[in-house]
Design brief:
This protein has four helices and no strands. The radius of gyration is 16 Å and the shape is elongated. The two termini are 21 Å apart.
Length: 127
């Protein structure tokens, strides 16, 4: 599972680079300044949580795989899809229907960080 999560994290980060370049070089000329800021917020959280997935996979290699670390990584992934994805869609389409999805992604991020913290503080992982 560690390698699978690390690979997915790298792919997610790569997609973030592509979307960031798209936003900076192409999208910026086609949507308004506010929409571009929304898109950039999605990129920022996208990258932070791709790195968080990578941290969780590295922690698995250091302390061993655990359900908490696995869940943390996949919650970060789900958060990227829901939080950043909804911001991308909201900013590019202007459809407000995507707005309510954003907080669900935020909850997934928070849950992932809680599980990562619990894993780091666990007796089982403090070798």
């Amino acid at each position: 599972m560690q390698r699978k999560i690390a690979i997915v994290a790298c792919i997610v980060a790569m997609i973030g680079v592509g979307l960031g370049a798209f936003g900076s070089h192409i999208l910026g000329e086609q949507i308004g300044e506010d929409a571009l800021k929304t898109f950039q917020t999605g990129i920022q959280y996208h990258f932070i949580h791709a790195l968080a997935m990578l941290i969780a996979s590295i922690a698995m290699g250091v302390w061993g795989e655990s359900r908490r670390l696995t869940w943390a990584a996949w919650l970060f992934f789900a958060g990227i899809v829901m939080f950043s994805g909804s911001l991308y869609l909201l900013s590019t389409t202007g459809l407000k229907i995507f707005g309510p999805i954003t907080p669900l992604g935020g909850v997934a991020f928070i849950a992932g960080w809680i599980l990562l913290a619990l894993s780091m503080g666990s007796e089982k992982t403090s070798r």
